[in-house]
Amino acid sequence: MSTEPFKNVCLLPQSNQLTGLYTIIRDKTTTRANFVFYSDRIIRLLVEEGLDHLPVVKKTVATHTGEDFEGVGFKGNVCGVSIVRAGESMEQGLRDCCRSVRIGKILIQRDEETAMPKLFYEKLPEDIADRYVFLLDPMLATGGSAIMATDVLIKRGVKPERIFFLNLICCEEGIQNYHKAFPDVKIITGCVDKGLNEQRYLVPGLGDFGDRYYCI
Ligand code: PRP
Ligand code: URA
Ligand code: MG
What we know:
By secondary structure, the protein is an alpha/beta fold. The protein is 31% helix and 30% strand.
């Protein structure tokens, strides 16, 4: 499903089921165990949606009834690239859907005072330019981190239209900043929040995703 007024943004269907999951992970009283469990459920939905955007070719198989089934087969290879640390939380969801998928890492950290991103490290599959890339980071706030990560991918030869940026929460400002730099990357998200606060955190948001998933 694509959503107006954002071009090249795919928003998961806003069902009661999905809203219920977000209600749990946004609740500040939710324990870390529950935060992980319910975030993982949303991540799985994002990955399944992302896979649905990949090209397929017609494929016919013979069934046990003696009849053929005219279906499709996936075309091309996928890899994941997580923006460390919080993005690593999305790796298992991708592994659960794509057996032995290759995963690259880009370590980018937002400065706590200025919210400006800093790149520390990258390690990507050698053949990444030949793959469809699922860029993984749960939060798209100002867009600075994702822009920096996408720059790394483009410099490695990945075509923007082969990148799918999966995140749990974003906002209009982040979408616009990101798409100003990379209009051809598809953003796949579960929620568009109302904006950013003074500390450049998403609101209503859920706080620091990495802290809630890994630490507190
Ligand atoms: C968070 C988040 C994104 C970034 C989003 O990471 O996981 O990478 O901030 O903000 P932006 O869109 O304004 O750049 P953070 O730097 O807090 O590090 P973490 O993954 O260790 O939590
Ligand atoms: N990073 C987070 O973890 N949360 C936000 O709201 C913004 C950046
Ligand atoms: Mg980060």
